[in-house]
Amino acid sequence: MSSKVLDFVEQPDAYTCQSAAIARVLGTTDVMSIRHLLTEGGRDAGDPWNMGQYLGKYCQEYRFSLTASLNDARKALEAGFQLITHGFFTGSGHVIGLSRVSADPKALSYRFNAEDPWYEFDFLSWSYTRNSGDDVSYSSYGIYAACVASSSVSHAAEIYRRGELNSAMGNMWLHIIKKLKSSRSPSSWGRSRATCTLSVKT
């Protein structure tokens, strides 16, 4: 494992989006080892608390929120944090990374640079393309619909079609990660002891 966040890690199958997103920020491509550790003892790999147990062991600073807003996400990215979040891009939901935020003058809004471990998402059709999800640009409207305001994939698509955006609405879960402090391999996670503070915002 490296102390450097990787540019991109793709998921090798339809079930490892959480593991790939974690792998990227932990500086490793060993997605399957992370998947194994996340599911040990019958745990749910997509449970954000489960994900946070491992993320919190390797960060200089780590926070988790169940009630973040897009404004919170923007501020964290502008402060140099990496983000992992969940959205209804698919029927069962999907986990992606957010790495940067930038102005979107055309839409009088802003956009997120996403690291989507599956493929690039097309918001107009609300479906995945076959293009790489490496450093893709996702609109604030798309992220709001998928990750903040929706309760299902059809609901997310409808919110996007209506052009809704509330940057202050706090209904987004975020893993907020800053700089690694460990070079241990993922196989040592189960034996490691968390040494950084886990601050939970609810």
Which tags fit this structure?
202 residues, alpha+beta, Cathepsin B, Chain A, 6 helices, 9 strands, globular, disordered C terminus
Structural features, described:
This protein has 202 residues and is of the alpha+beta class. The protein has a single domain (17-201), classed as Cathepsin B, Chain A (Alpha-Beta Complex), CATH 3.90.70. Helix content is 27%, strand content 27%. It is built from six helices and nine strands; from the N terminus they run αααβαββββββααββ. The strands form two sheets. The protein has a seven-stranded mixed β-sheet with strand order 7-4-3-2-8-1-9, sandwiched between helices. Strands 5-6 form a two-stranded antiparallel sheet. A hairpin with a 4-residue loop joins strand 3 and strand 4. Helix 1 packs across helix 2. The longest helix is centred in the N-terminal third of the chain and has 10 residues, at 17-26.
Mean pLDDT over the full residue set: 88
Q: For the terminal residues, how far apart are their CA atoms?
A: 31 Å
Order of helices and strands: HHHEHEEEEEEHHEE
Q: Which descriptor suits the 3D outline?
A: globular
Could you give a short account of the major beta sheet?
7 strands, mixed
Structure class: alpha+beta
Radius of gyration: 16 Å
CATH class: Alpha Beta
Percentage of residues assigned to helices: 25-40%
Strand line-up across the major sheet? 7-4-3-2-8-1-9
Q: What is the helix tally?
A: 6
CATH level-two architecture: Alpha-Beta Complex
Proportion in β-strands: 25-35%
CATH topology description: Cathepsin B, Chain A
Structure summary, number of beta strands: 9
Counted up, domains total: 1
Could you name the ranges where pLDDT drops below 50 across 5 or more consecutive residues?
A: 187-202
